[in-house]
């Protein structure tokens, strides 16, 4: 096991009606804060009544609220700059995100941009490291990205989708009320399920120092998400299924499943190149196409790891040869994605002809991608060709 | 799933040599602190070189150190009062525990006693709730109690062993270096393994609202602790096995495995009455006797929960009747304890005649014990009689 340092100081507030209590949680967790900025996306947060309830809760707790809507999926740096200007002119002391990963990431980028003299993109192109940030709190309305517990933030600039990660971006309070997920479109449910699974898988396969604890915890979480994800295909207002998916998906990206070993992130790198090329691609759907192709290409780098995956996640008996076992696991994983109505081929993802060479260049042109099998441009081309 | 609020803000520093870095972690996590009190147990921390290395690390980080040794197993309130006086006269601002659960609990009790005007026992007999506490940090030398991540503290007063729990007792920084466990006596290894398993089991069986995520994560952790605990019986200096046991055992008591459902703690209540009666009883050994007897007595209250335990923790196929499956699981659990050289009967625990009625009265006389099956005095008597 590798040495590590880990602190997950998010205050998680979980359950029915909890979004109505956010104001009191903010004033307790961040004493002294008087004015906050609420960031949200489209009109659904307003129409559903979630945003008004959140604002009311904050005002009842004595907080002044400045609201800024309009975050779009794959949020762009221009909008973040607008939010930073807004936050400065309103002199807010805390950013509260009401939404999913895109809204939370916009809040995080704003939070680190406000106290910084330069341009916020500096943090994403490696020019600067954030030294300070406003505190961020969240009310989750789409479980998928895990951003409500993570230190990560991803922003798009033109066709470049880039991430940053630093402890001071970890939200102080995150509210998860599974009831808020009942009205999500089915496509977003499925994309969310594979997104959270991918956060575990990006950590699971590189657990090559053989940390049994994080392996076993990760396998258990994958099984729980799959079991309950399928329940949501039957009934979108199944509270308990949403509670399982929401809880597991939130822990999926807080670092727990990566303790003591390396992480990979090649599939995310490839998907970011895909949705950077065409921002109508939904991140989770892109992952559903990339991950099975990645698995089929990279498993020979460490067959033992994939045999364990086959046995522990899919209950495949190891009474056949290694390759058969592994291919059966990949087939079962792909079949699960199909049951979730997810695309598993590029041709199902987009009607446009995917410029494979260009995507591969964007993903791995600047250096090798991932750790399970470090991928160069030719490797990514092969994976995307397999995904056709 | 029940609503819950959860925040585990410990900074966990894990791995080889990490105890030599504690000073820098303290000054970063608790800026402004200038003088600390180091609490430890017997001479082994000095002889092994751990204490001098820790003190040196703190002094190099610019911290003044006042050291207080002499904590004994099942630490008593008199010694805690002594520590509080010492901390006040030395005007320390933080308590650093170097040891196992007894040392950490002494540190926690001292930390909440220092700013309190009344007697520290008030917090354990229900007379007062702590409103403030000095920050606590830990360097773990015995993995077992999970106190390095937990909000709990247990102290003995005469024959009464009582606990308290409050968020402000959660350590700020906890260092776990598995190398420090290589010199533990075998008896302490085994007692530690069942102690950490018990922290999961006390949460696992009461998961009756059926939270799949915490059930599955708990089962995975139990399997990991059992697999690696047995490895330690073969080789006490197996770093990786210790890393697994140390990591799983530390998460066992931080609240993670109890998310979304009730907890039990009946076995701890009975064991505390036992080691309150005879403080030569090692907590883990007492648990090894109590838990199988508790299982045999309570399972009819929710057989489905025990069938899941049988299937997921011991891989027992559910192709036989419920009772046979459950009894087989309890037999396998007991066999594991025996492989760990633990006592599983009162007669193996102590040569003295155990006053069963008196112990049962101490455990459940003040009100029913536990939640899986709330136990009265007669129930506890029956369990202890079964454990003879």
Describe the protein's architecture and organization.
The structure is a homodimer of 388-residue chains. Chain A has a six-stranded parallel β-sheet with strand order 1-8-5-4-2-3, sandwiched between helices. A two-stranded antiparallel sheet of chain A has the order 6-7. Chain A has two domains: 11-180, Rossmann fold (3-Layer(aba) Sandwich), CATH 3.40.50; 184-386, Dehydroquinate synthase-like - alpha domain (Dehydroquinate synthase-like, alpha domain, Up-down Bundle), CATH 1.20.1090. Chain A has 388 residues and is of the alpha/beta class. Chain A starts with a strand and ends with a helix. Chain A has 15 helices and eight strands. The mean pLDDT of chain A is 96. In chain A, helix 4 crosses helix 5. Chains A and B meet through strand 1, helix 7 and helix 8 of A and strand 1, helix 7 and helix 8 of B.
Give the secondary structure arrangement, pairings included.
Two copies of one chain form a homodimer.
Chain A: E1 4-14, H1 22-29, E2 35-40, H2 44-47, H3 50-60, E3 64-68, H4 77-90, E4 94-99, H5 101-113, E5 136-140, E6 152-157, E7 160-165, E8 173-176, H6 186-204, H7 212-234, H8 239-251, H9 266-277, H10 283-298, H11 303-314, H12 322-339, H13 346-349, H14 356-364, H15 377-386
Parallel strand pairs in A: 1-8, 2-3, 2-4, 4-5, 5-8
Antiparallel strand pairs in A: 6-7
Helix pairs in contact in A: 1-3, 4-5, 6-7, 6-8, 6-10, 7-8, 7-11, 9-10, 9-14, 10-12, 10-15, 11-12, 14-15
